[in-house]
Structure prediction request, 273 residues.
Amino acid sequence: MDWPNFTTLQLDEQSGVVHIWLNRPDVRNAMSLDMVNELNTLFEIADANPAIRALVLRGKGGHFCAGGDIRDMANARARAAKGDGDPFFELNRAFGRMITRANRVACPLVAVLEGAVLGGGFGLACVSDIALAHAECQFGLPETGLGIPPAQIAPFVVQRIGLTRARALALTGARFDGRTALHYGLVHETAETAEALEQTLENTLEQIRRCAPAANRTTKRLLLETLERPLEKVLDEAARDFSAAIQGEEGQEGTLAFMQKRKPRWAEEPDNA
Prediction:
C-alpha cells in the first residue's frame, strides 16, 4: 500500500506485516514531536486497513528508544517564556495520545527491543502485545532523576508490571537488562544474540499468521475492554462478537479447515497467500 513520506520512521511491508523502524539513530531514536505525529498517522492507517496482520516496532542503530527529545523540551521552554499557552502540557499530552493509540491499535503490535529502552521507549514496550528483547538491552525510567514524573506512561507501566514493581522502578530510576525484564513480566521472550532475536521475531510472526486477522482484532479489543467496562457488558458484547465471527467468513473457513485437516487460508505460506 502507499504510505506517507515519513521523515522519522522507515517502513518495510512484507506479507501483511509492517516493520516500523524508529529512524533517528543519531539520538538513539529519541522521540520527537514529529515522530509522535507520524506514529499516530501510521496507527490510524493500520486501524483502517484489515489487510495489515501485524506491526513490528523497533529502532535503527542498535537502540529502541532513549525517551523524549530534549530539543522539543527546549522549544517548549522558549514558547513558555513568551507566554504562549502551556507548551509543556501540549507536548506531554501529544505523547500520551500517541501511546494510548498504540495500546489500542487494532492489529497485534510486536516490539523488538535492543539497546536503550528508556522513558517513552519503556512506555512503548509496555503497550506492545508481544515484547521481544535482547538480553543485554537496558530498561529504565530516568524521569525522576531529571526532576520530572513519567506522566503519560505511568498508567501503562502499572498495567504491565503491577503497582509494586512500578513504584520501585519509577522512584529509583533503576536500570535493568532484558533478562530482568523477562522476570518482571515486561517482555515475553529474550534472546542472547542479535541472530537469535531475529529468529524469535520470525517465530512470533509465524504464530500470528496462524490466527485469523479479524478474530485477532476482535480478541484484542475484547481483552482491553475487560479493564474498562463492567463484566456483564463485556460478556454480552463478546457473545455478539462470537456469533458474528462463527457465522462469518473466517469462522466458516476455520471450521472447514479443521474438518479437512488443513491450514486455513490465512495461515498459508506468505508467498502462496
User: Anything to note?
Assistant: The longest helix spans residues 87-104. The beta strands are 9-14, 17-22, 54-59, 109-113, 116-118, 130-134, 138-140, 176-177, 189-191. The chain has a mean pLDDT of 95.
